[in-house]
């Protein structure tokens, strides 16, 4: 998992793979977004950012309220689906 957290492109691919797995088992977009929000909250509290991109996301996450953080989570899903 350490490689996943140190390289942003690897992180995006990891997240993309998890989103595809969630879809394949029938999770709705809302359910996936809720999970992404929970993962974002966990990472914010427990994981020190390992690169510039993660640090920027953490700073944005930290200044956002709950609704804005949910939007960030949805945007991360869109980002990895587009990639």
Topology at a glance:
Elements: H1 2-6, H2 8-24, H3 29-46, H4 52-63, H5 66-82
Q: What is the H/E order? A: HHHHH
For this structure, the CATH topology is: Cytochrome Bc1 Complex, Chain D, domain 2
- Mean pLDDT equals 91
Number of separate strands = 0
Distance between the termini: 21 Å
Tally of individual domains: 1
At the first level of CATH, what is the class? Answer: Mainly Alpha
The SS-based structural class is mainly alpha
Low-confidence stretches: none
Sketch the major β-sheet: none
As a percent range, the share of helical residues equals over 70%
Strand content: under 5%
Number of distinct helices: 5
Shape: globular
InterPro entries: DUF3243, Uncharacterised_YmfJ, YmfJ/YflH_sf
């Amino acid at each position: 998992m350490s490689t996943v957290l140190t390289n942003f492109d690897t992180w995006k691919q990891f997240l993309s793979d998890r989103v595809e797995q969630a879809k394949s088992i029938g999770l709705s977009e809302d359910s996936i977004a809720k999970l992404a929000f929970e993962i974002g909250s966990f990472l914010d509290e427990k994981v020190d950012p390992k690169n510039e991109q993660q640090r920027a996301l953490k700073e944005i996450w930290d200044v956002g309220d709950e609704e804005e953080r949910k939007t960030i989570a949805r945007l991360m899903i869109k980002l990895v689906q587009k990639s």
